[in-house]
Amino acid sequence: GAVVSQHPSWVICKSGTSVKIECRSLDFQATTMFWYRQFPKQSLMLMATSNEGSKATYEQGVEKDKFLINHASLTLSTLTVTSAHPEDSSFYICSARRGDRVTSPQYFGPGTRLLVL
Amino acid sequence: SQKIEQNSEALNIQEGKTATLTCNYTNYSPAYLQWYRQDPGRGPVFLLLIRENEKEKRKERLKVTFDTTLKQSLFHITASQPADSATYLCALDADGGSQGNLIFGKGTKLSVKP
Predict the structure, then answer these.
(1) For residue A31, how many other CB atoms are within 10 A of its CB?
(2) Taking the mean position of all CA atoms in its chain, how far away is CA A72?
(3) Which residues of B are less than 8 Å from A23 in CB distance?
(4) Once rounded to an integer, what is the mean pLDDT over residues A7-34?
(5) With bands split at pLDDT 50, 70 and 90, how would you rate the model's confidence at B95?
(6) Residue A70, pLDDT above cutoff 70
(7) 3-state DSSP: chain A helix, strand, coil percent, rounded to 5?
């Protein structure tokens, strides 16, 4: 149990286009989902925390108008990178917290590799 | 701000030995700490959680210790196997445990040689 999927697994796009990444919890409901970004040989950096039915909470330095997050249901959160530029190229990973306790572990998706040309 | 360091970027050991990975943190007193495993090109997989009032936690061949005085957690894999080769990340709660947000270290890449 506790499977999280992401789609697409990789995407190549031209500069200026928008890219949508989906994150789904397949066998559990997740009130809270998280979006991370990871550059090569770097740690996961939390971008935003998404709670179902409410606005996402963005970390300092993350532009909310550029990285649009929608958590429409207890099993789906989406991240849209708007007007993507080469510096947005990275590995984007979502996670879903199973259970209501804040100490509940996060279950991660397989990640989406984005390359902006 | 909180700072979390995993001392070794890479650790190479022989199969059957015990691997010990270190995680240090500063400027903070986390309510809990978690360890994850990440394989190349994949998302992390949760392994263990240890709370501030726990000294040690075990799960099969894994053992985690938490020393709040030293501000350090040690992660041990006993009888290591080549299949244990991966990057191991420690993470601590970023907000006193109120929201469950995590700060991750850069990870230690473990290679177990047969």
Answers:
(1) 16
(2) 13
(3) none
(4) 94
(5) low
(6) yes
(7) 5, 50, 45
| Cβ neighbour number for residue B51 with a 10 Å cutoff | 13
What letter represents residue A95's amino acid?
A: S
Question: Cβ separation of B93 and A108 shorter than 8 Å?
Answer: no
Mutate to test the interface with B, among A37, A38, A43, A94 (most CBs of B within 10 A): A43
Enter the tokens of residue A73.
Answer: 């249901």
Q: Tens digit of pLDDT for each residue in B44-83?
A: 999 999 998 899 999 999 999 999 899 999 999 999 999 9
B103 close to B4: Cβ distance less than 8 angstroms: yes
Distance (Å, whole) CA B102 – CA A51: 15
Pull the structure tokens for residue A16.
Answer: 């200026």
Find out whether A106 and A3 touch, Cβ atoms under 8 Å.
no
Contacts of A34 in chain B (CB under 8 A): 101-102
Average pLDDT for chain A: 91
Question: Which residues of chain B neighbour A6 with C-beta distances below 8 Å?
Answer: 43
Task: Give the pLDDT mean for A96-105.
Answer: 78
Say if CB B33 and CB B94 are below 8 A apart. no
| Residues in chain B whose Cβ is within 8 Å of chain A | 9, 31-32, 34, 36, 41-46, 49, 51, 89, 93-94, 97-107
